[in-house]
C-alpha cells in the first residue's frame, strides 16, 4: 500500500510565507530597476529612416535576459514549483544563466547552469562570480537532458526554452514591447515600420509579435538569425521538427532545433545573417555607440540595414527599432579576439566594408 505523506498546516503556512517573501523581493527589485535606454542613430545614407537600439545590456545582470529571468522565477513561484531552500537549474548558453544566477543570489538559492562546454569563458566566469555552478556539456544537444537530470534530483527547472513564451505577460506589465512603444511616443515615427530581434528561446519574438497585434499596430516583426539556424528552417517550412543546417558562432541565438517557444505566426520576416557579418557589425557597434555589445546585437544591426535599404528603395520613410542584447565584454576572448577569429577563419574586412558602405549609400548588396 502506498504511503501518503500530507504536509501539515504549519509547514504549508511557512512555505507560503517564504514564497510571499520571495515575490515581494522580486517586486522590490523590479521597482528599483529603471527602464533601459532607447538609443537613436541616424546614418547619412538613410535620410528619412530613424534607427533606435534598446540597450538591454544596461540591466543589472547585463543583458536582455534579465527580464526573462525575473519572469521565470515569478512563474515558478506562482505555480508552486519553487520552494524555500530548493536548488534551481536551467539549460543556457550564458546570458540567461547569468541573469538566473543573479536572481538566485537575490533570493538566497543555489543555482546550476547547464552550458555547452564551448560557451564563452567570460560568461562562465560571470555565472560563477554570482555564486552559480556551471555544469559543462560537450554535446550542446544534451543540455536539456542534463538539466532534466538535475530536476529529477529535486531541483526546480526554470526551463527557459519551454516556458519563455508564456512566462512573460505579452499584454503589458512593462514587457519589452510595451516599453519600446512607450519610449517612441514623442518621436517623429512613433509607430515603427519594423522591430528586429533574435530568437534564442523565442520568448522575446513571441512577446513583441503578440503585443503588436494586441495594440493593433501596423509595425512588422523581423527575426534576425544566424544563417541556417533551426528557427530559419522552421519558420520557412512551419516544421516544428526542423534542425539547423549549419552551426553558428553567435551565442544566444541560432538554435540547432526548433524550440517550444518559437511562435512562427507572429513573425513577418526572417533575416539570415552570416556569422562574419554579425561579428563585423558587433565591432562596428562599439565604434558607433562607444560600448561593446555581443554578436547577436551585431546580427540585429545587419538585419536593420537590410530592412532600411529595402524601405529606401521603395521610397518609404519611418523608423526601425532593435535590441542591444548583452555586454560585449563577455566575448573578449572570442568575438573580440583576433587570434580566436583567425582560428575560426573569420575575416571581418569584407563585411566591415559592406556595412560601412551601407551606412553611407543606404543600399545593401543584392537588394533591388
Short summary:
The protein is 43% helix and 14% strand. It has 13 helices and 10 strands.
What does this structure look like?
With 368 residues, the protein is an alpha/beta fold. The chain folds into 2 domains: 34-63 and 171-361, Rossmann fold (3-Layer(aba) Sandwich), CATH 3.40.50.1100; 65-164, Rossmann fold (3-Layer(aba) Sandwich), CATH 3.40.50. It is 43% helix and 14% strand. The strands form 2 sheets. A 6-stranded mixed beta sheet has the order 1-2-10-7-8-9, sandwiched between helices. Strands 5-4-3-6 form a 4-stranded parallel beta sheet, with helices on both faces. A hairpin with a 7-residue loop joins strand 1 and strand 2. Helix 1 runs antiparallel to helix 2 (65-78). The longest helix has 24 residues, at 9-32. The model is unreliable at 1-5 (pLDDT under 50).
Which term fits the overall shape? globular
Could you tell me the CATH topology label of the largest domain. Rossmann fold
Q: Tally the beta strands.
A: 10
Domains, number: 2
Question: How far is it from the N-terminal to the C-terminal residue, by CA?
Answer: 74 Å
- The CATH architecture of the largest domain would be 3-Layer(aba) Sandwich
Q: How large a portion of the residues is in β-strands, by DSSP E?
A: 5-15%
Helical/strand content category: alpha/beta
* Overall pLDDT metric: 93
Identify the CATH class of the largest domain: Alpha Beta
Total helices: the number is: 13
Helix content: 40-55%
Oligomer: single chain
Topology as a string of helices (H) and strands (E):
HEEHEHEHEHEHHEHEHEHHEHH
The biggest beta sheet is recorded as: 6 strands, mixed
Poorly predicted spans: 1-5
